[in-house]
Amino acid sequence: MIPVTSFSGKTVAVFGLGGSGLASCQALKAGGAEVIAADDNADNVARAAQAGFTTADLRTVSWANFAALILTPGAPLTHPAPHWSVLKAREVGCEVIGDVELFCRERRRHAPNAPFVAITGTNGKSTTTALIAHLMKVAGYDTQMGGNIGTAILSLEPPRMGRVHAIEMSSYQIDLAPSLDPSVGILINISEDHIDRHGTLEHYAAVKERLVAGVQQGGTAIVGVDDGWCRNIADRLDRVGKRVVRISVKNPLPDGLYVEHETIVRASGAARSEIARLGGIGSLRGLHNAQNAACASACALAMGIATDVLQNGLRSFPGLAHRMEQVGRRGNVLFVNDSKGTNADAAAHALSSFADIYWIAGGKPKAGGITGLSEYFPRIRKAYLIGEAAAEFSGTLGDRVPHDMSGTLDVAIASAARDAEISGLAEAVVLLSPACASFDQYRNFEIRGAAFRDIVQALPGVKPVV
To answer: Which segments constitute the KARI N-terminal Rossmann domain (predicted)?
Structure first.
């Protein structure tokens, strides 16, 4: 835990008592603050009270003595309307911040030069964060990973020299961290997302930009420049004197890192040098993972990691659970769990990464279905449809893709495994990438992915992928 000493002797309101909220309460109390905890959910309030925190209805108490409101990222700060607790805070001039801001203040107080890597982007930030943490560990660093990827930032060990914090950040968390100042800031990409919480794409992009714009003096801003929003951001950072490393997986760059023929290349003027090779790394298949790997490699280079250590780290990266996770192999058949592919855009990444696919798809359908995936249909040898979306997906596939109405995951796996094995293909891939939510048959995508893994690993002759 990171004790928050910046509010020692002061009273602080904490709204939102999920994992990060309770961690904030514990860190503030450990640092000497008096905490008043609140939530709209009575069960969360009861848990906080049971943990020993003072709870109250913030609608009825006086705000005069509150030094700050620590707000959960799940509560809106601006759009579609500020949360009622935000309005209460603004009435009395009380600052509204989040747990990432508390971390930043503690780091500046106690270890301002401790390595702090902050990662954001519309897509790929979890994989990039996990890969950076893996590379740092391979290089021998004491590494702490958290934020949006899982562990609340204040539940990690405190910043100190020689200890790297690799922190994934959503736009909501950035919005609540006005003094965010990483030593390395990474903006992977920007596309339309979370407009309900930011009002416009322009505002969403502006919030994302703050992560790299806030990089501390002497630090490095790493920006993927394959979309127009990020290209403009990189140019603005250049103009104000930030050290910018541009990343591209689509085009060679005159300066920066780009990917060409599964090789990460560093360009500086006329000079070109090979940094690392991605070919054959199953956990980093696909153009989207090449972007993630290039961003992580730029971070490793900024941290002074040698290229041979970087290459070893890339090759040993196990990937993330439920995201193109290779769960087993039997003969010519590779089994891949991409349960996180809960919509067509996400499933497209997986479908674009393999050639001969036995595709398990379906679940609780989302708007648009799989109509946007038609360019990938030639890669699909056969589809096995499950859940509520089966009939709709069957209509979309029509005569273009052979398919079975499997209904349930166990039936789909058994059929796909059999068909893939007798195909005679050099490498057939049984791919779970549902393009659907899981809620018709499973409580969440993690449980669905775990079920896929368990069923596959119970098949006779299946061996783990090394």
So the answer is: 8-73
CATH class of 11-97: alpha beta
Tokens matching residue 462: 């299946």
**What does the CA dihedral 81, 82, 84, 90 come to, rounded to 10 degrees?**
-140
Q: Are strands 142-147 and 163-168 parallel, antiparallel or unpaired?
A: parallel
Please report, as a single letter, which amino acid is at residue 373: L
Q: How far is CA 63 from CA 48, 56, 66, 464, in A?
A: 20, 12, 5, 57
Domain with CATH 3.40.1190.10 in the chain: 101-315
For the annotated binding site for ATP, the residues are: 121-127
Q: What tokens does 96 get?
A: 């509204």
Binding-site residue numbers are 121-127
Instruction: Report yes or no on whether pTM surpasses 0.85.
Output: yes
The DSSP call for residue 364 is B
Where do you find CATH 3.40.50.720 in the chain?
A: 11-97
CATH annotation of 325-457:
3.90.190.20
Phi and psi torsions of 198, nearest 5°: -125, -5
Cα(186)–Cα(212) distance, integer angstroms: 6
Q: Which of 52, 32, 40, 50 is nearest to 15 (CA)?
A: 40
Q: At 111, which amino acid appears?
A: A
Q: Are strands 95-97 and 66-71 parallel, antiparallel or unpaired?
A: parallel
Rounded CA gap, 167 and 143, in Å?
Answer: 11
Token pair of 155 as six digits = 């539940």
pLDDT in tens, the chain (466 residues): 999 999 999 999 999 999 999 999 999 999 999 999 999 999 999 999 999 999 999 999 999 999 999 999 989 888 888 999 999 999 999 999 999 999 999 999 999 999 999 999 988 899 999 999 999 999 999 999 999 998 999 999 999 999 999 999 999 999 999 999 999 999 999 986 667 777 788 999 999 999 999 999 999 999 999 999 999 999 999 999 999 999 999 999 999 999 999 999 999 988 999 999 999 898 998 899 999 999 999 999 999 999 999 999 999 998 889 999 999 999 999 999 999 999 898 899 999 999 999 999 999 998 889 999 999 999 999 999 999 999 999 999 999 999 999 999 999 999 999 999 999 999 999 999 999 999 999 999 999 999 999 999 999 999 998 7
Residue 115 near residue 163, CB atoms below 8 Å? yes
Identify any residues that bridge with 120 across adjacent strands, giving them in sequence order: 187
CA angle 70, 68, 176 (to 5 degrees): 45
Name the token pair of 440. 């018709």
CATH T-level topology, domain 101-315: UDP-N-acetylmuramoyl-L-alanine:D-glutamate ligase (3.40.1190)
